[in-house]
Predict the structure.
Amino acid sequence: MGFFLETLLGGLMVGMLYSLIALGFVLIYKASGVFNFAQGAMVLFAALAMARFSEWIPHWLGFESLLLANLLAFVAAMAVMVLVAWLIERLALSKLVNQEHITLLMATLGITYFLDGLGQTLFGNDIYKIDVGMPKDPVILLESTFEGGVLVSKEDMIAALVAAALVLVLSLFFQKTSTGRALRAVADDHQAAQSIGIPLNRIWVIVWSVAGFAALVAGIIWGSKLGVQFSLSLVALKALPVVILGGLTSVPGAIIGGLLIGVGEKLSEIYLGPLLGGGIEIWFAYVLALVFLLVRPQGLFGEKIIDRV
């Protein structure tokens, strides 16, 4: 039982990080109707910016404080992500208002490859580390309840708590603020939103900036765990099955979908891996997403689309 709980907790913590990345997909889709294929590239780009700024800033300013270096690097990386959001809106999205969804999707594909190339040009293509001071040692819980206790990574626990707090804040922002309501109005109908005075360009900059902030936090967490390397964008794409499972238009769906996939892939790897040959974590999420596309394409909490003729 202790081992099962250990695996379950590990899956929940990883799933919370998937939810954080998936939230970027959901926010942009709800606000603009764009399926942002570039979210994985944004996570990588933001992590590269954070890693390199945390190296460069102490040399530029001549100090050795890790905390101050990370704080200034975070501010600088966030400024870069806001600039990226502004450029995306100014150079791409503003030219594609009311275009077909496939046109917008192809635009985000182009943005993906542009950000990948720009990241290598600006920040290099080595493997970098992000050290934000999270403890790496594991902790043993419930020793009095289960023999041997439950082994939990402190780093994973802190990362999951940070991700959960950010998901909660962004959910409240989207549901309770006037800006969040404006985002939903723009998602429903661009022209109608413009007709009542909602500035479409400003709204898109805001939502892409918020998605950039979520990508930056996710990039810092994953970069701290795995190192900042270009495979990080592939890890971020694990959020695609999450939004398919939870629903493209649902913030709670992104959270629950991430938790289900995180737990599912961990449990299946441990308990089905010996029978099926291992490697289940690699494909589990995508197979589950395929099943949902066949039986419930709108996801668990997505809005069912009904076309009347």
User: Anything to note?
Assistant: The longest helix spans residues 2-32.
